[in-house]
Write a structure and sequence with these properties.
single chain, four-stranded antiparallel β-sheet, globular, four-stranded mixed β-sheet, mainly beta
Length: 145
């Protein structure tokens, strides 16, 4: 049996996304996967000689806070999209996030997650605008105080 595959069928566009997201909470701006990927080889922009964001943002059990999100276009211009219906929040473990971007740190979570001091809480934020084709994603890491 012979299998014919057209050239390029398995090719993927691995170019950098043209838009990105930046998030902040009342404690300050969050450093996500996007910022870390942009810093590779140029850590001086963070004023440090070591990789930023290696330490997760610490949050207290039972606390709630607003996550503010900005969409950064290819020219670097920021647009506040906080509370947009085009945002999707994907928290894991001890965090829940309402559609308006208010996050709550839970005291308990379903297995296999635990909510003990030092436990990691990953959060992915996705912006998807099907009408314009603009999409962006960033991943953040929190930990329980």
């Amino acid at each position: 049996m012979l299998l014919a595959v057209a050239p390029g069928v398995f090719a993927q566009d691995d170019g950098r996304p043209t838009s990105s997201l930046k998030a902040s909470i009342p404690q300050g701006e969050l450093v996500g996967e996007w910022e870390l990927s942009m810093a590779s080889g140029n850590l001086s922009q963070f004023g440090t000689g070591t990789a930023p964001g290696i330490n997760p943002t610490k949050v207290a059990q039972g606390s709630s806070f607003q996550i503010k999100v900005k969409l950064i276009d290819p020219n670097g211009k920021a647009k506040d999209v906080t509370g947009s219906s085009k945002l999707i929040y994907r928290p894991k473990g001890c965090m829940s996030v309402a559609a308006n971007g208010v996050a709550t740190i839970l005291k308990t979570a379903p297995a296999p997650w635990t909510c003990n001091a030092g436990d990691a809480i990953p959060l992915t934020i996705i912006y998807a605008d099907q009408s314009t084709g603009v999409g962006a994603v960033n991943m953040y890491l929190f930990s329980i105080k």
